[in-house]
Specification:
25% helix, six-stranded mixed sheet, alpha+beta, 15 strands, 276 residues, CNF1/YfiH-like putative cysteine hydrolases, single chain, 8 helices
Length: 276
């Protein structure tokens, strides 16, 4: 059974991890490009304010998306993504304004009603959930960040910050460019060649001086190396470059590519209800 499913809400198509949704008090979604107001080449649910699209249209898309998912768009917390491995921590009593827009590629919090987000258009969005606390995290995992072990580091940081066992963490890996399409030169592949043996499935040779990289496989290995049980990790297994009808892809579309917005949040109303 596929752990991911497309759900239509208010004419928007959202990608949802079904077993992740089973955890009460957690809201999450991976966006697609279906259901917005942007026109070609950004059609239609472009959620990237820095993509070059008309800003008014992107803001309307974000309004529709937040309404469909169930969060306050004014509360959204996202970082200035820098393709690194810095983790930003928002404590339960912290001010989201001190984190919002700071440089980094991973966010964790145990504060309810604060939607954490990453923007993607080939890089992988990874959602982390510890429902027993609860605590959540989200990661922007591209080639450089994954080479720098961002997913493993944020998992370790989440466990240390919130005093969790890795066995308490569940992870969902959203769509990103697959090993079928992501060809890079030897210099770009080198950090993966040095960290992963060929049999581990992270890289494979292509034409001379080039390799195909399977970033998703590297992310899976980082999660399990950090102690997250493989049975608690779900992957969408959807290549953004292969599915133009569903996803934006910077590799495919270049500077006129739209962006997906991926969100996770602790639902304060649900957690209060469960405590009562």
């Amino acid at each position: 059974m596929d752990p991911f499913a497309i759900e239509t809400r208010n004419a928007l198509a959202l990608l949802i991890c079904s077993p992740m949704r089973a955890h009460q008090g957690i809201i999450h979604a991976f966006s697609t490009r279906i259901g917005g107001v942007s026109t070609s080449p950004y059609a239609s649910l472009n959620l990237g304010l820095g993509s070059g699209d008309d800003r008014v249209r992107v803001q309307e898309n974000r309004r529709r998306y937040s309404e469909a998912v169930g969060f306050d768009p004014e509360s959204l917390v996202a970082l200035r993504q820098v393709h690194g491995n810095r983790v930003a921590v928002l404590a339960a009593d912290g001010d989201p304004g001190t984190v919002r827009g700071s440089p980094g590629d991973a966010l964790i919090t145990d504060r309810p009603n604060v939607p954490l987000a990453v923007i993607t258009a080939d890089c992988f969005p990874v959602i982390l959930v510890a429902p027993s606390l609860p605590a959540v995290g989200i990661v922007h995992a591209g080639r450089k960040g994954t080479a720098a072990q961002v997913v493993g580091l944020v998992t370790e940081c989440m466990c240390k910050e919130f005093r969790l066992s890795p066995e308490a963490v569940f992870a969902a890996i959203g769509p990103g460019i697959g090993g079928c399409c992501y060809e890079v030169d030897t210099a770009s592949a080198e950090p993966f060649l040095s960290q992963y043996a060929p049999a581990q499935g992270v890289s494979r040779p292509s034409r001379p001086g080039h390799f195909y990289l399977n970033i998703r496989q590297a992310i899976l290995r980082q999660l399990t190396a950090a102690g997250v049980p493989a049975s608690q990790v779900w992957s969408a297994n959807l290549c953004t470059a292969c599915h133009p009808q569903w996803f934006y892809s910077y590799r495919r579309e270049g500077q006129h590519s739209g962006r997906m917005l991926n969100v996770v949040m602790i639902d304060g109303a649900s957690t209060r209800a469960s405590d009562s």
